[in-house]
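To whoever is on call:

I kicked off a structure prediction for a single chain this morning and the downstream step that reads the tokens threw a length-mismatch warning. I double-checked the sequence; it's 236 residues and nothing unusual in it as far as I can see. Pasting both halves so you can look.
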Amino acid sequence: MRMDCGVLLRFLLVFLWIKLTDVVSKTVLQCPDTSVDAEIGKTVILRCLTVPQMNVNDMTVEWVVNDTDHHVHAQRGGKQKLDDQMKEYRGRTSLFDSKLSEGNCSLRLTVQMSDSGRYRCSVIGEEILSCFTNLTVHERVKINSSGPINKPRDTSSSGSGQTGGDGKTGNDTSSALTPPKIAAISASVVIPIIIIIIAVVIWKCSKSKKEQNKQNMNEKEMRRIEYSKAPGDDNV
């Protein structure tokens, strides 16, 4: 017994909606670098990413330090909000605006000695997602005749200090296959397959409907010819 195209299509659409809802509900916020070292006067990037990727342009992205009431940086609907920003951070912070559509909420900060602390990154939408990074600031490297002193930890090998423009470091701890990433990979495979199946079903249903319409027209034409014949047309 052939399933009605409309019933099958509705079933697939419901399944797709459930899958998309499931992906959104499993979205988490990750700060890959739980501890970051930075040298005073340098620019550091505190990474904060949604997993799987999610467009946060229309959401509120907040960075606060040591759970204070005022923001290190806040952005709502793609626009920076300066009203509640701490004065000591003004002019020293920014987000990667072009990356917000990919869920990259990383903070770019030009470091001062007083910036050491525990930073919280939050994305506020229907739910509130948060993660934390500890920042430790060191004084500049001093050079004397015997060599460098007061040298901070080498961040190039730890992947927590010097970063590229996209907010990634040399040691990308976010590359591990955590459960949210596994869910994201699964969704990235399953959802396109469902969409392809829906497209095929729509095409087959459309083709079947055209063939059915053609058959109905042929049957109607045959009946019309039969009915048009008079009872005595075959008599000589």
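Update from on-call: the warning came from a stale cache, not from the record. Cleared it. Sanity check on the structure: The CA atoms of residues 82 and 146 lie 46 Å apart.
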